[in-house]
Amino acid sequence: MMGPAHSLSGAAAWLGVGAAAAAAGHTMPWPVLVVGALITAGAALAPDLDHKAATISRAFGPVSKALCEIVDKLSFAVYKATRKPGDPRRTGGHRTLTHTWLWAVLIGGGASLLAITAGRWGVLAILFVHLVLAVEGLLWRAARVSSDVLVWLLGATSAWLLAGVLDKPGNGADWLFSAPGQEYLWLGLPIVLGALVHDIGDALTVSGCPILWPIPLGRKRWYPIGPPKGMRFRAGSWVELKVLMPAFMVLGGVGGASALNLI
Q1: Which residues of the chain have pLDDT under 70?
Q2: What pLDDT sits at residue 118?
Q3: Do 117 and 182 contact (CB within 8 A), yes or no?
Q4: Which residues lie below 8 Å from residue 170, measured CB to CB, with a gap of 6+?
Q5: What is the dihedral angle through the alpha carbons of 11, 3, 88, 81, rounded to the nearest 10 degrees?
Q6: Peptide bond into 216 cis (omega under 30)
């Protein structure tokens, strides 16, 4: 799928988690719901860091472009080292390592570790990166006609303000993990969810997605998971633009309202 659809699906997924938590009697504080939705929207773009034309590869200027090249080469090297006889030959790393459940867990776990070891600056870094990506994905029309610096300033300002809100007692810094020293440990969860939602979205497209790697399936280790071919669509097609994106908006709205006990 394209960036905007990935971001919308990510935000909708977190709002759905919020609705499920409310139904189970564990309503999220509203800052956790909002910040989590924004992080998930940004994280849903992150697996495409292996593609030089992707939104995330352009989002942070030379830094993200250089990181994209490194991740692409790393992904390709892992693919070549682990492919089985049934896996096709490739010339690049797109839709390989960063599009797996293992990558999602590692990235989310790394973010949680950063949040609890680096303190406030670690939290601000996580928020900044994902809020910039959320702007690029959810407000993509405005972001493309604006300068990168303005988007970065918006991300930095929003990160600072939202971190201040979360820091206040009862607003969610210790949501889910309440032991001393575990504040913000939950920040890895929307990152894992965003990556997995991205992978599921790509699995619906023509090429499928090797979500289950490194678990082998038959003669393939990089098996492209997806529905029957007749049910798949091309990225950017009318199915994505006219059906899925409006559906994500509706589901997100319903999920958010349910999470806040408004319906």
Answers
A1: 141, 144-145
A2: 92
A3: no
A4: 29
A5: -70
A6: no
